[in-house]
Amino acid sequence: MVLPMPVLPSARRSALRRRLLAWWDAGHRELPWRFPTGEADPYRVWISEVMLQQTQVAAVVPYYLRFLERFPTLEALAEASEDEVLARWSGLGYYARGRRLRAAAREMLARHGGVPRSREALAALPGFGPYTAGAVASIAFGLEEPCVDGNVARVLARLGCVEGAPEAPATRARLWALAAELVRGPRPGELNQALMDLGATVCGKAAPRCARCPVAPCCAARARGRERELPPARARRAPRRLEVACAVVVQGGRLLLERRPPGGLFGGLWELPGAEVAPGATAPAALAEALALRGLRVRVGKELARVERVLTHRRLALTAFRGSVARLPPPGGQLRLAAPEELPALALSAATRALVEALPASGRPAARRRIREEE
DNA sequence: AACACGGGGTA
DNA sequence: TACCCAGTGTT
């Protein structure tokens, strides 16, 4: 990396390093992808880092365990189908991560025979940006490479009293330069993880717990009483509204699903065949029309369930209507029928899973059998 | 530089 | 509700 001139006096730099590593040694969090010093498994470190992109630790842990159970090695992941990978990613969000993970696994084996051991080679792989390349290089391979995520950016902005929006290029460059200086020396992986843990558990966004902070004496923002103001919150646009109508078509006790196109929102996932409803349009009519255009002639009945979800950039509303078809298109393509017991293992978004679970018993695939059993 | 891309935790 | 989270890729 090209770095600006040093910004940390060397005495201050060693004090920070010493305090951070001592704090780490005094009791860091135990997490399933963390190993004793020098015993890191690069494959596991990589999987965890990708899952942790924009996702909090507590949310990741169960998905990580489930994923490693199915794909314990790089080879297992490289041999899996995209559908299998997405199934184990189902509910975690940002599904492009799962697709890129599989693509990178295949490329790693083809070109490097394993997880490559340099920042440059890592950064060239799908799903690796500056953060993940630095994290894997330092944690898995002990290389002196910086990584700046949201937590580290906040910690460093306070430590160095760095003004300006963290996402602005000039601020980013300063924070990365700080991180690069700080990581130089023994135990780079643990130094980086200590910075991240500090941001997650002590140097919080709204209420930094400076009394418990190992580097509070070195903190420039605290010295100026500005630790609560830095870094400035970033402006966000209001989520746009997305109204979707979908059809509950049951055939032989199985539910009709359609695969979304790769890329874009929920790319590659299965969902109830549906359509966006434009503002002012009538949902059942819009649904029937859109499905007919895709070769699926559905008679749309009454509403069965509705769920709403707020994503970062969308306010998503899904409404399910009973649907009946005279004849299904030939199998293959993007349609499939799924039995109720298959649903837990399918690649569905959290919203679609919630919608299916919200269906009244009369609308669900198992309904007919259950009614007969009661007779 | 701005936007798309999920879902859940926290105050 | 608002903000953010172990970010990356596209336009």
TrEMBL record:
Sequence similarity: Belongs to the Nth/MutY family.
Signal peptide location: none
EC number: 3.2.2.31
Cofactor: [4Fe-4S] cluster
GO BP annotations listed: base-excision repair; mismatch repair
Organism: Anaeromyxobacter diazotrophicus
Function per UniProt: Adenine glycosylase active on G-A mispairs. MutY also corrects error-prone DNA synthesis past GO lesions which are due to the oxidatively damaged form of guanine: 7,8-dihydro-8-oxoguanine (8-oxo-dGTP).
DNA damage listed as a keyword: yes
HhH-GPD domain mapped to chain residues: 51-201
Key word Iron present: yes
Enzyme class label: hydrolase
Domain of life: Bacteria
Protein name, per record: Adenine DNA glycosylase
Catalytic activity, reaction form: Hydrolyzes free adenine bases from 7,8-dihydro-8-oxoguanine:adenine mismatched double-stranded DNA, leaving an apurinic site
Cofactor detail note: Binds 1 [4Fe-4S] cluster.
UniProt keyword list: 4Fe-4S, DNA damage, DNA repair, Glycosidase, Hydrolase, Iron, Iron-sulfur, Metal-binding
GO molecular function terms noted in the UniProt entry: 4 iron, 4 sulfur cluster binding; 8-oxo-7,8-dihydroguanine DNA N-glycosylase activity; adenine/guanine mispair binding; metal ion binding; oxidized purine DNA binding; purine-specific mismatch base pair DNA N-glycosylase activity
